[in-house]
Design goal:
ABC-Purine-Binding, 2 domains, Peripla_BP_I, single chain, Rossmann fold, 382 residues, alpha/beta, six-stranded parallel beta sheet, 12 helices, five-stranded parallel beta sheet
Length: 382
């Protein structure tokens, strides 16, 4: 993900006209209401021969699939689910986190059985609407609030971030890495920490400078933040946003770049290393199938790399083979449950021990992380 966040506010008419053309779902009408029929009426009826009823499914996106990152991967997962289960879902794009979001969820709940919200900032809106519609199943990406009809889902992207950090630690020549953080929330903080720990595991002298863009998708602002780090002399630059602006800025300086969410190699082919990627399709298939089977429960799903929900993108064409082999060996350890990213000893920026040797952070501790590990230069705004 992905998100307690701020998005460019769009006019109501833009939000409501954003139903994805890829799904062949009808656009919202001029009155601003979600479509009353998403083209699945026949699918929703019980099929001949007693087959299970197929639910009417909707996805609410913070951005557009064309972002090449977070929303793109959610949409790829939606497409996989549609193909596997024979369901055509409704999508609503460019939905800001706020009053508009709650209205969209309310309208979708009128004629859908399952609604996915793909941004952290939708959490309270989804809770409010779910309480009013107990017969609708809601699933919220990266949130932490659940109800009898509201579950959450996310993955251990920090496992991917550690591997990417290893590659960065091997590729740097001056030991100065940069990271453009999105928002100072635990999801981003623990990912940056994992990146730093990965880099330090192969290069103890590596340190990471962090700046915040306070955006998820704002190429102009993200490029400015990236430039501020490039001006400080970082020779590997990573970012936690949905746009490729940071790695494009790095490429212009001949600096190695690391993207986020989806394979971003095409944006900086000569200087690209790799980046964490999401694979939502298997989860969406399983979740919707459980609704069809009548086995759905409001779980707090936190999948791992072993589950296939997160991975790393293919390495860039100029990444040495020995670096690739090193990272691949550690990946196999993670897949075999032989390595824990947040196993001690781990110290924070001040040198205070946070995780003792022989112990490891719990999932709850990871999901509530509000501190940086030793070797990171930067502050976490309160």
């Amino acid at each position: 993900m992905k998100r307690m966040m701020i998005v460019m506010l769009l006019g109501v008419f833009m939000v409501l006209s954003a139903c994805s053309k890829e799904t062949n779902a009808p656009a919202a009408n001029a009155g601003g209401e979600a479509p009353a029929d998403n083209g699945t009426a026949a699918e929703s009826a019980a099929a001949a021969g007693g087959e299970a009823k197929k639910p009417r499914v909707a996805f609410v996106y913070l951005g557009v699939p064309g972002d090449g990152g977070w929303t793109y991967e959610h949409d790829q997962g939606r497409l996989m689910m549609e193909k596997e289960l024979g369901i055509t879902a409704t999508t609503v794009e460019n939905v800001p986190e706020g009053a508009d979001a709650e209205r969209i969820f309310e309208e979708l709940s009128q004629d859908h059985d399952v609604v996915f919200g793909t941004s952290f900032g939708y959490m309270d809106a989804m809770v409010n609407v779910a309480q009013k519609h107990p017969d609708v199943k809601f699933m919220h990406a990266s949130g932490y609030k659940t109800l009898d009809n509201l579950g959450t889902y996310l993955g251990k992207e920090y496992q991917s971030a550690y591997l990417v950090g290893m590659a960065a630690g091997k590729m740097t020549e001056n030991n100065h890495l940069g990271y453009v953080g999105a928002f100072p929330i635990p999801e981003v903080i623990y990912t940056i920490n994992a990146f730093a720990l990965g880099a330090q595991s192969v290069n103890p002298d590596a340190h990471v400078s962090v700046v915040w863009s306070n955006t998820w998708f704002d190429p102009t602002t993200e490029r400015q933040a990236a430039t501020s780090l490039l001006d400080k002399g970082v020779d590997v630059l990573a970012a936690y946003q949905d746009s490729p602006a940071s790695i494009q800025a790095a490429a212009e300086r001949g600096v190695w770049g690391i993207g986020n969410d989806s394979d971003m190699s095409k944006y900086a082919p000569d200087t690209y290393i790799t980046n964490p990627v999401w694979k939502w399709g298997p989860y969406y298939i399983e979740a919707v199938q459980s609704v069809i089977d009548g086995t759905w429960k409001p779980e707090s799903y936190f999948g791992s790399m072993k589950d296939g929900i997160t991975d790393i993108a293919p390495f860039g064409k100029n990444v040495p083979q020995d670096v690739q082999d090193l990272v691949e060996a550690k990946k196999q350890e993670i897949l075999n449950d032989a390595f824990d990213v947040f196993a001690g000893p781990i110290k924070d920026q001040t040198g205070a021990e946070k995780v003792a040797a022989g112990s490891a952070m719990t999932v709850d501790e990871i999901l509530n992380m509000t501190w940086f590990v030793q070797g990171i230069d930067g502050t976490i705004p309160q």
